[in-house]
Amino acid sequence: MNFLTNEEILILFIRTFGSLPVLFFPFIGSIFAIIVDLSDLFIMNFIQLGGVSDYQKLDKFADIFYMTLFFIVSLRWNSYEKLISIYLFLFRIIGLLLFFLFNERFILVLFPNVFEFWFILISGYKYFFNYIISRKTVIKLLLISIILKLPHEIFIHYIKTLDNYTTTEFLQIFFK
Fold this sequence. Notes:
The protein is an all-alpha fold.
């Protein structure tokens, strides 16, 4: 039986509470939740509380909480946005279940988290423009979400570029 380390508990605690603002401030809260999502990379590099046994599984497990909160908020939206949210959320959840079952990261590329980008774009649109979104705009935002997320998933889970660096090493390379 595997128990969580103190470091894993801290990461889950921070990720969980960092997602809650989305319930009250969908756009700003979603941006905050994504920033907090990245915090685990820094926690693992700077705090030594027992380590993380399987980062990808821990990260994807923690993702379920913020995604569920995004999903709950999206159920308040109009029909097109809500229906697409339901589909994208379930699509990613199926991908996560298959990932946990087979432990193959390529599954995450086949089931990209388009829902995350979709939620941010729709909530941002609602935040800045505050009116009903046309079907045409909904389709455009969905396509933008897909176009942005696919390379991200390929970079992270297929090419596994970041697996070879600590967060600080990557930032040093990126900002040189």
